[in-house]
Design goal:
mainly alpha; 2 domains; 11 helices; globular
Length: 324
């Protein structure tokens, strides 16, 4: 995903107070979201749709992260509006991913596509055209200007002078460490059930938990920039790579479950449906083996502990006394 240049330029937030840093980080998320919004309107293609969808998810995670500092009802209402857009973009994404998958599907022995594939591709192509037209109309109806104004007003309401459920004067590092650990705890709670291959629901929940953890880490990334230039790979970057591995595997598992539903709904019995479902099951079994291997090879606890330690302490000796 390409991130607008504005998001990479931030003041030194390592030792800032929560109210100041949260306002700045929320503003960056809004800039990112509306930059991708305008890009999607100018050039409607798969990459733009994906970037806007990811930006909408990151914005929602930012609202959830800093909700203790914001008016509860406004946060909930704006988050729901952004979520509607996320869902609309997801429908088109699912069809696009299915077209990519099934168009490249071949039998290992013959090299030919399984029976029923051509019929499914024709159906999905028609659905893709209809979905794109509907999304184009929906984006035109979406009240982005009003949303932009309301989000800007919300950010301005982050002040240290109103009573909130969290102390606005605590250091952003201490708050961020706790917020990161909160998402990690949810991942750890969901993992045992997801290790049962047949429990697709548990794997779906874990996928969402990993996604939110990764977005939260990316939102807090400015606090970790330049923590130790001598290290080739910082703990935060290591964790991001680990999270991406898990997220990719769980995402592909979920895609295969969605594809199986598409086959059952769109391919008639006796015309290749059973063969397609068998092929999908074989792909899923291989992916699940990779997922279990990732669980054995890359535990999260040590990396999260290192990042939490970095977030709680001043990152540079010359900034230890600097507070905003």
């Amino acid at each position: 995903m390409s991130i607008p240049a504005e998001r990479t330029s931030s003041p030194q937030l390592h030792t800032a107070r929560l109210w100041f840093a949260s306002s700045h980080l929320l503003a960056m998320l809004q800039q990112e979201f509306f930059a991708h919004w305008r890009g999607a309107l100018r050039r409607f293609d798969l990459d733009e749709v994906h970037d806007l969808r990811v930006a909408s998810r990151r914005l929602r995670e930012g609202l959830a992260l800093f909700a203790p500092l914001l008016p509860e009802k406004k946060v909930a209402r704006l988050s729901r509006r952004v979520k509607k857009l996320t869902i609309m973009l997801g429908d088109l994404r699912n069809v696009d991913e299915a077209l990519l998958f099934f168009s490249g599907l071949e039998r290992p022995a013959s090299g030919a596509a399984p029976a029923g594939t051509d019929e499914l591709l024709r159906t999905l192509s028609k659905e893709r055209e209809a979905a794109q037209k509907e999304l184009t109309r929906a984006l035109a109806r979406f009240r982005a200007v009003r949303l932009e104004m309301e989000l800007a007003e919300l950010t301005e309401q982050v002040t240290p002078f109103k009573p909130r459920s969290v102390d606005p004067f605590i250091g952003i590092g201490l708050f961020a460490a706790g917020a990161l650990e909160e998402r990690v705890k949810l991942v750890e709670e969901l993992f045992p059930a997801a290790l049962h291959e047949e429990d697709a629901v548990a794997q779906h929940r874990l996928r969402i938990a990993f996604k939110k953890l990764r977005y939260r880490l990316e939102i807090l990334a400015p606090l970790l920039e330049g923590t130790d230039s001598a290290r080739c790979l910082s703990p935060s970057e290591q964790l991001r790579r680990v999270l991406k591995r898990y997220q990719d595997l769980l995402g592909k598992l979920h895609d295969l479950d969605v594809f199986a539903e598409m086959v059952q709904e769109r391919v008639a019995p006796g015309t290749g449906r059973e063969e397609l479902l068998q092929v999908l099951a074989q792909h899923r079994a291989v992916l699940f083996t990779d997922f279990r291997q990732a669980h054995r090879e890359q535990p999260l606890e040590s990396l999260v502990s290192q990042i939490s330690a970095e977030l709680r302490l001043p990152h540079r000796p010359d900034q230890a006394g600097t507070q905003l």
